[in-house]
């Protein structure tokens, strides 16, 4: 038999292909990426549009958000500056939490802008008066004038050789009374109300009745009020008169520095008065941080 049965050969070809099924994991990763990019651009937009002082307050808050003692490298600012959490049940003005003017209506915002312009004009007039007045010029180093979130602040500070009051007493020196008399006529030039606070340094003080720095600072603030009224300021303009003892030092590095003994007079902005009227303000943080409206350090300027 010549023909021999040929074996049947079956060739099986293995189909090539990619990897296995990947599912939707890539979609989740992509969504995370898009979300991160959106958050990044929102942060960049906020950084570009927020005022510098608010950015500083936010940065300070995240450095140390609690006023309670803990393991932080530095003490929380609390009432000593913007951004710190407070440890007292009092609504305070700062650059981060509900500053005057925050949440204002368009009409209120326009009034606030006009009010700011009036206060800045009064600041310039006071500065010119201090430079030209024979009564005020000798004390220009003890008169610190700046714009704060609460309004126009005028601080009269002690110096080593020229205190404002008799030692341990609320009695005004003659020249301090003269300064307040001169200031009084300028305070009547605007309709804004006025807040007065008294401050001491940390030197312990107690009189025969047991009164200390808290009472002394309150009595000195009230003495300043009487002098302003005697100088012609309308008493109806007063919003509050408080004594803060040594709780808010001007020079935090040296609590016994005479500059910490001071009277602070704040011509309240319209926005601050609105918050005052709501019963939310009792102690002005604007009275704490010695900075001018450009962020400069008044203590450093005075020492230069």
**Percentage of residues in strands:** 5-15%
Number of domains: 2
- Order of strands side by side in the largest beta sheet? 1-2-5-3-4
CATH class of the largest domain: Alpha Beta
Number of helices: 7
Shape: elongated
The CATH superfamily of the largest domain is known as: OmpA-like domain
Q: Give me the strand/helix succession.
A: HHHEEHEHEEHH
What is the name of the CATH architecture of the largest domain? Answer: 2-Layer Sandwich
Distance between the termini: 124 Å
Roughly how many Å is the radius of gyration? Answer: 32 Å
Identify low-pLDDT runs: 65-97, 291-296
Structure description:
This protein starts with 24 loop residues before the first helix and ends with a helix. It is elongated and about 140 Å long. It is 36% helix and 11% strand. Helix 4 crosses helix 5. It is built from 7 helices and 5 strands; from the N terminus they run H-H-H-E-E-H-E-H-E-E-H-H. By secondary structure, the chain is an alpha+beta fold. It folds into 2 domains: 73 residues, no CATH class; 201 residues, 2-Layer Sandwich (60s Ribosomal Protein L30, Chain: A). Strands 1-2-5-3-4 form a 5-stranded mixed sheet.
Characteristics of this structure?
304 residues; alpha+beta; 60s Ribosomal Protein L30, Chain: A; 2 domains; 5-stranded mixed sheet; 7 helices; 36% helix; elongated
């Amino acid at each position: 038999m010549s023909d021999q049965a040929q074996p049947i050969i079956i060739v099986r070809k293995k189909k090539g292909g990619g990897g296995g099924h990947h599912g939707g994991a890539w979609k989740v990763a992509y969504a995370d990426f898009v979300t991160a990019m959106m958050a990044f651009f929102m942060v960049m937009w906020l950084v570009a549009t927020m005022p510098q002082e608010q950015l500083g307050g936010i940065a300070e808050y995240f450095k140390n958000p609690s006023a309670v003692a803990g393991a932080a490298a530095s003490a929380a600012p609390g009432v000593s500056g913007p951004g710190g959490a407070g440890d007292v049940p009092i609504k305070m003005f700062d650059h981060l939490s509900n500053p005057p003017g925050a949440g204002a209506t368009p009409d209120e915002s326009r009034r606030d802008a006009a009010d700011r312009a009036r206060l800045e004009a009064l600041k310039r007039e006071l500065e010119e008066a201090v430079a030209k007045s024979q009564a005020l010029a000798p004390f220009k180093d003890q008169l610190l004038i700046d714009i704060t979130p609460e309004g126009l602040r005028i601080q009269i500070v002690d110096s080593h050789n020229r205190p404002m009051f008799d030692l341990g007493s609320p009695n005004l020196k003659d020249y301090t009374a003269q300064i307040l008399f001169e200031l009084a006529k300028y305070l009547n030039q605007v309709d804004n109300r006025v807040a007065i606070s008294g401050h001491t340094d940390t030197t312990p003080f107690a009189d025969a009745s047991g009164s200390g720095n808290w009472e002394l600072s309150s009595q000195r603030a009230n003495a300043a009020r009487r002098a302003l009224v005697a100088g012609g300021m309308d008493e109806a303009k007063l919003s509050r008169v408080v004594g803060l003892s040594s709780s808010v030092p001007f020079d935090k590095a040296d609590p016994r520095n005479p500059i910490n003994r001071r009277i602070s007079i704040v011509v309240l902005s319209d926005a601050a008065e609105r918050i005052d009227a709501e019963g939310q303000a009792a102690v002005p943080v604007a009275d704490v941080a010695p900075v001018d409206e450009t962020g400069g350090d008044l203590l450093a300027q005075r020492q230069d």
